[in-house]
Specification:
Elements (H helix, E strand, L loop, with lengths): L2 E7 L3 H15 L4 E7 L6 H11 L3 E6 L5 H10 L5 E4 L11 H9 L4 E5 L9 H18 L11 E4 H4 L12 H7 L4 E5 L15 H19 L3 H29 L9 H32 L7 E5 L3
Helix pairs in contact: 1-2, 5-8, 8-9, 9-10
Length: 313
């Protein structure tokens, strides 16, 4: 069984050599390839990758022309992989390569998708950082009907057969387990180690949770009825919709307190208008996302541009 490890990279030059050493130690007795995708890094990532590839033919390198996002990098790595099992892993050393063994054991038990669960990730974090992630995972599990505790964990293992035809845009890589489950795949979850970042700084902020929830709307829509436009239209739509709801609540409060009657204020009309506009903007976002998907797939285009490939035959 050949293993393809896919490593999306953005400004992680200081962590790469240690990551390669750990991956080689774990995979040395397995047929494998390490596919690294440089997502337009601005640090020394390119030269570090090129040097590593020159010393080890199992390390394959793809350089993007610019920054296209983590999902595009993972999608590209999957597209260029040749293994029976594909394992995406973060390049910041927060994922422990030794946990790949746990995932392979589950794959050998008959599962098609194995997702990592960083159970102790938030133990020492403040509630304002812990709560949004917990709520997002519960909401995603509820909507997709695929219960996972940590959709955001990059470390996962997939049988090639369940993702070979997947098309990924926006932040949708985290929804692959749900996508696969809807199509009959067996999904499992294992606890994995979470290691604090030692070098560099995180390239992902709390705003990512908001974008993920917008992509969740699209994923659910695609599941029920059949790259990033949704982030613009959806963001504006949620904002306007929220203002409409807030206006409606204010109107009710004023009525209860006897300060204003419904006929004495334009707030009810404003509330209805904002809610309708918000819903329309979200709907436009879904339609734009559909058109983007049709555009890419009908012309066989990819949501990234490759500048250079190394060690690919």
């Amino acid at each position: 069984m050949k293993i393809s490890v896919v490593v999306p990279i953005y400004n992680e030059a200081d962590n790469l050599n240690q990551l390669f050493d750990e991956l080689q130690a774990v995979l040395k007795n397995h047929e494998h390839e390490i596919i690294t995708v440089n997502d337009g890094s601005r640090d020394n990532t390119r030269s570090v990758l090129n040097e590593a590839a020159s010393k080890n033919k199992n390390i394959k390198v793809i350089h993007f022309h610019g920054n296209f996002g983590q999902t595009a990098a993972i999608f590209c790595g999957i597209h260029h992989s040749s293994g029976d099992v594909i394992v995406p892993i973060d390049s910041d050393l927060e994922n422990d390569p030794n946990d790949i063994f746990k995932m392979l054991e589950k794959i050998n038990e008959g599962y098609d998708v194995v997702s990592g669960w960083r159970k102790g990730r938030w133990n020492d974090q403040k509630l304002r950082r812990k709560l949004p992630s917990m709520l997002a995972n519960k909401l995603i599990s509820k909507i997709t009907r695929v219960k996972l505790n940590d959709y955001g964990c990059t470390l996962k293992a997939y049988r090639r057969s369940v993702i070979k035809d997947a098309s990924l845009y926006g932040e949708m890589h985290r929804f692959i387990p749900a996508y696969a489950s809807w199509r009959g795949a067996k999904v499992s979850e294992v606890e994995v180690d979470f290691r604090p970042r030692r070098k560099g700084k995180s390239n992902y902020g709390m705003s990512r949770i908001f974008k993920v929830l917008l992509d969740l709307v699209v994923v659910k829509f695609l599941d029920k009825y059949m790259t990033r436009p949704m982030h613009f239209f959806g963001g504006a739509g949620f904002l306007v919709f929220s203002l409409g709801v807030a206006t409606g609540l204010l109107t009710i409060v004023l009525k209860i307190l006897g300060l204003r009657d419904f006929v004495d204020t334009p707030l009810p009309i404003l509330c209805a208008l904002l809610v309708m506009v918000g819903v329309q903007l979200i709907a436009m976002g879904v339609l734009a996302e559909m058109l983007m998907r049709v555009y890419f797939e009908s012309q066989n285009k990819k949501p990234y541009q490759i500048a250079e490939k190394i060690n690919f035959e």
